[in-house]
Amino acid sequence: MKRPEEERPLSRLSTQVAQFDVSGKTLLLPRMNPFGSRLLAAAFRAFGVDARVMDTYKGLALGKEFTSGKECFPCQVTLGDVLHHLQGEKERLGAGFAAERYVYFLPEADGPCRFGMYNKYQRLILDRFPDLRAVPIAYLSTSNGYAAGILPASRARYFRRLAYVTVVIADVLERASWRVRPYEAVAGSTDALLEQAVQAMEKLIVEVGPSRDCRRLYRMLERYLAAAAGLLDPKRPRRPRIGLVGEIYLRTHPESNQNLARSIERFGGEVVIASVAEWFNYVTYDRLLRVRSRWRDLVRRPANRGLAPLLRDTIGVLAEHGYQSWRQAQVYRCALRCLDIARDHSVRSLETWLDHNRHFNFAIGTEAALSIGGALAYIHDDYDGIVNVFPFTCMPSTICAAILKPLLHRSQVPYLDASYDGTVQPNRDLALRTFIYQAQQHLEQRLNGGRRL
Ligand code: SF4
Questions:
Q1: CA-nearest residue, atom 4 of ligand 1
Q2: Which of 110, 247, 248, 250 to mutate to test the pocket of ligand 1 (most atoms within 8 A of CB)?
């Protein structure tokens, strides 16, 4: 790749990092969770956008080369993915490469941490390459609940709803893999079956997309989960269940977390990772809390001017919250008819685990609220260990570690912090083996009615 130029015009941060109609462009999606990104891309294709999931982790050296080292690790990984992909496209197409055909998709979050800045920062870096300046960055934001401002208004709402269903279906397929793989009778059969399921689901999402006939998606999901249940070897004893919480990208991106879930399985555990839908539900729940707080303000300082927009926002967010709860319950009901995967927690229930804000407060925001509440919910559900997975120096996860460690120590539940920055830690496997040994002891103690062994 050609060396970058030094020019960095700041005005492009608003013109070339924006919400605009991406129809007719090739939308480049960074890969996060292996199934979810593919199904999300299929949802975009169902609405006429040529969306592709980029190869991941192959451009990490580029991502590291063009960052300072102070950035969050997911920022380096996603930057590496897009640089590597566009470099590959240039080599493949030669003179036919036209940067303006592509749009790079990089969502953002408001709030106190750095995720809101990734796309601006990556804009500055892309702009240093003359032949990549014409690749705009499109984003969705938590500030308006991920309203799909990158599609025409007539389709945006329907896309958003289909996208949510694909997120939940992907969560369920991932949960099926963690439930079945450690107990499969034939090694490799779970991965092979679920790969088939994802491919079939991608096609079906594109087919049914605009009609949003979710029943066809559910029927297919049921068929594959019933087949997955058939792969279980009933003679294998149940392993200690390990709940994984932490930063959403790291916990769901196997390359970045050095295949943590599979390592835990290899050492004798069964994993359940906090779902991706949890984050979308949290964004909606957070909007609900804000609307409530506006109502309280209005009651304290009545002003007719604020009433109409507040009513409109309240109805909108209640409808969204209701839709998500309804769809998520539907998908899990289908799944649970065929396979006993782990159920998902509602965000409202996670808030109750914070014990009236004694452990943390949702008003502070960030994923720390979900991770702390999620870890405590796992313990309540008799999990035998908790791993907090995060990028090295991640602010919310560091808060989470500070709160969870003493809490879980008091509850005598094995706990492990696992931070990643792309380097290989020689003692990681040893720490994991020790942790799984403790989790196994915890399981045996639990099955013995709490008696110490
Ligand atoms: S959640 Fe952590 S890794 Fe993600 S942007 Fe915030 S500080 Fe960085």
A1: 115
A2: 247
Could you read off the pLDDT of 214-233 as tens digits, one per residue?
A: 999 999 999 999 999 999 99
Q: Is there a contact between 34 and 59 (Cβ–Cβ < 8 Å)? A: no
CATH 3.40.50 boundaries in the chain: 12-149
- pLDDT of 453: 44
Convert the pLDDT of each residue in 363-422 to its tens digit.
888 899 999 999 999 999 999 999 999 999 999 999 999 999 999 999 999 999 999 999
Q: Token digits for 362? A: 């949702």
- What CATH architecture applies to the domain 12-149? 3-Layer(aba) Sandwich (3.40)
User: Per-residue pLDDT tens for 6-26?
Assistant: 545 678 888 899 999 999 999
Centre of ligand 1 from the C-alpha of residue 284, in Å: 20
Q: What is the pTM of this model?
A: 0.94
Residue 440: helix, strand or coil by DSSP? helix
Cβ partners under 8 Å of residue 78, min gap 6? 30, 63, 106, 118, 122
pLDDT, one tens digit per residue, over 149-176 is 889 888 888 999 999 999 999 999 999 9
8 Å CB contact between 17 and 137:
yes
391 CA distance to ligand 1 centroid (A)?
A: 7
Q: Which of 115, 257, 397 to mutate for ligand 1's pocket (most ligand atoms within 8 Å of CB)?
A: 115
Residue 452 alpha carbon to ligand 1 centre in Å: 39
**Element housing 404 (H / E):** helix 395-411
